[in-house]
């Protein structure tokens, strides 16, 4: 019963928005500009391991910023809250994802969801794991998705070649001792982490791993500590949609994370992992269809936290 009901719901939302052609595909990373603006996939995974999908749910795309909460969770587990807090804050920046602004007194990036904070987190992981760091990240994200993930070499090279703004941010962070000396390999790791390939179904399962208190509900594998999950979801709630985070919390009311590839992952605590992929973005870098379907789902299923 539940099966048909949810399937019908996402099929209906898919057809409601497939014909809406608002937003532009990101092209500041040239390789991302090749994505089809018409691709549109949705998937939902439940905390008891059922998966529903519709549209282009098999189409692969790169995680981009959706990798950030997962890397943050890994850093929290590896270093503990106190050490991580010395390098990155937990306040919404109210600014765009690629802002070069840092906190006034501490010189920390505002939070781990904006590029500056995510580069800091990844630099910490690089400092700890060195050349093993990419494998560590891939292994952990693969456990969250329930299958082996790899990276998109073209997207990685494309961003590595053109990511001058992120390079500038990283060197500013070095200036304030927020990241260790080895800036270039840390940036390289960040670009690779952003280029991890998933499909919408994978993303729904990764999201459901967070909704299920860190345990992948499909494979049964424990992927993240409960404390890390609580911190990841808190930051996603306040900062996950960049300078749309306040409006998202108001209208949708669940933790979420977007990426410039067009991915959106929303987490309904203890219930559902929701994922959407559609590369048409609004001016803030969030997927237009992703925002629409999550807003409608929240309304129709009463998902808002309050
Ligand atoms: O660092 C960048 O600019 C990209 N690799 C990721 C940015 C991103 O996904 C922002 N999302 N809306």
UniProtKB/TrEMBL annotation:
Task: Please name the GO terms of the biological process aspect recorded for this protein, alphabetically.
Answer: glutamate biosynthetic process; L-glutamine catabolic process
Residues the record lists as binding substrate: 65, 115, 159, 166, 190, 242, 260
Write the record's keywords in alphabetical order, separated by commas. Acetylation, Hydrolase
Note the Pfam families from the entry. Glutaminase (PF04960)
Q: What is its EC number?
A: 3.5.1.2
Enzyme kind, highest EC tier: hydrolase
GO: which molecular function terms? glutaminase activity
- Catalytic reactions of this protein: L-glutamine + H2O = L-glutamate + NH4(+)
| Superkingdom of this protein's organism | Bacteria
Gene3D superfamilies in alphabetical order? DD-peptidase/beta-lactamase superfamily
Known partners and oligomeric status: Homotetramer.
What family is reported? Answer: Belongs to the glutaminase family.
Q: What is this protein called?
A: Glutaminase
Organism listed in the record: Marinobacterium lutimaris
């Amino acid at each position: 019963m539940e099966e048909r009901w949810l399937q019908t719901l996402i099929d209906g939302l898919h057809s409601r928005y497939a014909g809406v052609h608002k937003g532009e595909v990101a092209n500041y990373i040239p390789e991302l500009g090749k994505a089809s603006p018409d691709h549109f996939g949705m998937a939902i995974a439940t905390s008891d391991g059922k998966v529903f999908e519709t549209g282009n749910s098999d189409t692969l795309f790169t995680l981009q910023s959706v990798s950030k909460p997962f890397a943050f969770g890994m850093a929290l587990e590896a270093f503990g809250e106190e050490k991580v807090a010395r390098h990155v804050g937990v306040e919404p920046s109210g600014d765009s994802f690629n802002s070069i602004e840092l906190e006034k007194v501490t010189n920390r990036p505002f939070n781990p969801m904006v590029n500056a904070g995510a580069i800091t987190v990844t630099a910490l992981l690089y400092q700890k794991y060195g050349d093993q760091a990419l494998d560590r990240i891939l292994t952990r994200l693969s456990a969250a998705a329930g299958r082996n993930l790899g990276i998109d070499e073209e997207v990685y090279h494309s961003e590595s070649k053109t990511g001058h703004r992120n390079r500038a941010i990283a060197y500013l962070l070095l200036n304030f001792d927020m990241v260790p000396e080895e800036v270039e390999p840390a940036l390289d790791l960040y670009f690779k982490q952003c280029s991890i390939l998933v499909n919408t179904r994978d993303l729904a399962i990764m999201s459901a791993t967070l909704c299920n208190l860190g345990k992948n509900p499909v494979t049964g594998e424990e992927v993240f500590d409960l404390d890390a999950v609580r911190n990841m979801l808190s930051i996603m709630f306040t900062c996950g949609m960049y300078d749309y985070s306040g409006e998202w919390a108001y209208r949708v009311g669940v933790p979420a994370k977007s990426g410039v590839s067009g991915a959106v992952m929303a987490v309904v605590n203890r219930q559902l992992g929701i994922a959407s992929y559609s590369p048409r973005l609004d001016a803030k870098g969030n997927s237009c269809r992703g925002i629409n379907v999550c807003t409608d789902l929240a309304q129709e299923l009463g998902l808002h936290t309050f």
